[in-house]
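In the previous chapter we treated chains in isolation. Here, by contrast, the input contains two separate entities that must be folded as one system, with a combined length of 603 residues.
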Amino acid sequence: MITKKYIHWGICLLLLFFSLAAAIIFALCHGPVKFSPAQISGVIFGGAGGIARDVILNVRLPRIILALAVGGALSLTGVILQGLFRNPLVEPYTLGISGAAALGAGLSIILGLAKTAALILPLFSFLGAAAAFAILYFLNSRRGILKMEELLLTGVMMSFISASLIMLIMSVCRREDLRSIIFWTMGSLSETNWVLIKTALCTAVAGLAIAYLFALDLNAFTLGEEEARHLGVDVDRVKRTLFILASLLTGVSVSAGGIIGFVGLAVPHFVRIFFGNDYRVLLAGSFLAGAAFLIFCDTLARTIVLPMELPAGVITGIIGGSFFIYALTRRKVALGEK
Amino acid sequence: MLEIKNLTCGYDEKIVLQGIDLKANAGEFIGVIGPNGSGKTTLIRAISRLVRPRAGSIFLAGKNIWQMSFNELAKTIAVVSQSLETGSLSVEELVILGRLPYFRRFQFLETRQDVEAAERCMALTGIIRLKDKPIYTISFGERQLAFISRALAQEPKLLLLDEPTSHLDIAHQVQVLDLLSKLNKELSLTIIMVLHDLNLAAEYCRRLVLIHEGRIHKTGTPSEVLTYQTIEDVYKTVVLVEKNPVSSKPCVLLVSEEERNRKRR
């Protein structure tokens, strides 16, 4: 029985791995100039040169790596938060964490700090995300567990406040900064700074590894915090560590890709349907699926109205937002309340 | 086994329990009774380290529970609380969670021993046929048995239960309590349980602890504690205490106001 479970997990993960590979190939092929998979393997493995090499390795590949990192990180954060709050509708965007991270990024730009070093921007978005978490954490621990509606409303309000403050920053900032701030509010993966892309990838992968140390604790959280404590879980330490991890993942994702909503909501939900609710497989599953999903959405965003390019946040917002409404109407089932 | 010394605890401003002294020997089956809000659940929460004592301390086999590691405590005490929140786990997944304290660092997958232990516990409570069902699809009685199985999977020395029979029909009440009594006798598991139903408490527990307004009002065998004077004192309700003709344990009968008035006339 148990080995059957492991085989099921293995097959699901393998399938997700293949979909991720398929999404990457799809994204490498499509764009203003189309390439065939044969041309791509020629460039990557055969060392073929020319414009194709330049476009594939220097334009499309960095973007795909970024989409992989950001999609994986956001989806992973979503799944962690859903486990901590025992609520299938929370994710960095709906809790206002992304908004706060973008506010942090905006602040570092207007203060002129962002140009001084490449990692100042991610640091500031991390601080923004952490501040938003601190507020939620405070409300959560002071009044016991926030009810789902309260939690979501608080998140929406924090998004509004962050959005207003970002607008305030935009209205007083220098013109040359305006474009880069708009970028954060829309969510786009056109970042070309390699340092930032590498940071995002490393953080995402490290985040996944760290999250795995808490996979069993998250399983115990399914029963509630007190029950987790009865099972020997050091609840406070787990919560603290995972909140910091989630802020870090959100901060870095937002600093590299802006506010990209709903990846952390829609993706884990579908992964749960196929994998069940065991975090030992959900974490990796959500990471892979989120990465594939965002690579796919970003490819759509940059090819759907050629030669124009849409921000990826538009596509994920439309798909994920409609999904959110759908999930809300079915939430009794999703929560297992029945 | 368990020794509570001069325990005072509560939440925020409010003090719920005051000056509690209680000793439980290994193999005891203790029922905690008392009116609503008297502090029964808080006592269970204090023993399971969810509430920090203001004063006094709780020792488990000579060790202060606040100096034990979380895992060590979970291997000694298992709790079946009133909240039966389940998410969408299957029965088997729930019971295997009880093995969590035995997982080593960086161990992610359950071992054969864990699975066997879980199956043993499910067989003991008689729910092994339900093991692949999601918990929210089974009845309350079966759910309670599933949570007891999870507690047993922790291989505890002390089992704490908070009203294990609420929401259950009489058949399931007897089933759950018979099971606990069997566990107490055959595995010599020490059991402390909170019960509302005085008759069930009298029938199954060998010792009762009556809590009233945060203090221990009386403790002793069921026939020592459940006298009509004591019950009327604490519950402010008129009752009759008879003897159960089969078990000769005390049996508390309630009388409606109408009947009381008729009798008086």
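The two ends of chain B are 53 Å apart (CA to CA). Residues 100 and 108 of chain B are 10 Å apart (CA to CA). Compare these points with the single-chain example from earlier in the chapter.
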